[in-house]
Amino acid sequence: MNSPNMYKSAVKPTWCAGCGDYAVLSATLRAFAEMGWANEEIVAVSGIGCSSRFPFFLKTYGFHSIHGRALPVATGIKTARPELNVVAFGGDGDGFAIGAGHFVHTARRNVDLTYIVMDNHIYGLTKGQTSPTSGLHFKTKSSPYGNVEFAIHPLVAALSSGATYVARGLSSDPKTLKELFLGAMQHRGFAMVDVLSPCVTYNKVDTFKTFRDRSKPLPEDHDVTDLIGALSMAMDDTVMHTGVFYRAEKPVLGDHLEALKSKDGREWEEIIEGILRGMT
After folding, report:
1. The overall pTM is greater than 0.85
2. CB 164 within 8 A of CB 191
3. Residue 234: which domain range?
4. Most exposed: 17, 32, 72, 202, by fewest CB within 10 Å?
């Protein structure tokens, strides 16, 4: 097995002391090591936010995109270079606010990539505003009288949009987190792992203790092939279940594109050239 350190860049993480994202980085390095991937076989893609600094801390190919656009960039890379292992990183604001539309369409296309979301229920990089996963009545700089919007359910959104590997973990449990990441990276299809990763600076409500007290592992008899059962567990607001909610084997976007490579006896590249000629 490779060493996790071989994937670590010389750039030191710049998160606040105690941030849950440190554990996410550690679990990612160890998952890469167990996958046995070469550095040049990995592309880390991110948007904007504290969690989106990830590519700087990895000794792999990386792309630091604009706010909410990590998934379309990752889709383009995987489509152009399907042999590469593409892993996208982001936060709840980047993924479920400005990037929500891209999240839905990446899931329904079942793009063969892994998406790791560091979900802390607040905007950390911009100094503590309400995010799409912030709870009702949650007070922040952007909601001083309390949040008046219901929180989005990331797992429900992923499941209902067509994601074929959906999981949730805690940054306070890095051992289990590494296993969830490993399963996501081994999966062929769109794999999303929602990580409850507290912001220790701006969110004094959703803390490590809060997440630990409110969460528990999925039942041992949970059927990961049962979509309705997965949705039911994800929608349970009385507890934040952790583990793999759903896993399915379905054709990925690349399979459909491969099927288009031969149409009317012509190669796909020739079809594209013909389209471009018709546009000029």
Report:
1. yes
2. yes
3. 4-249
4. 17
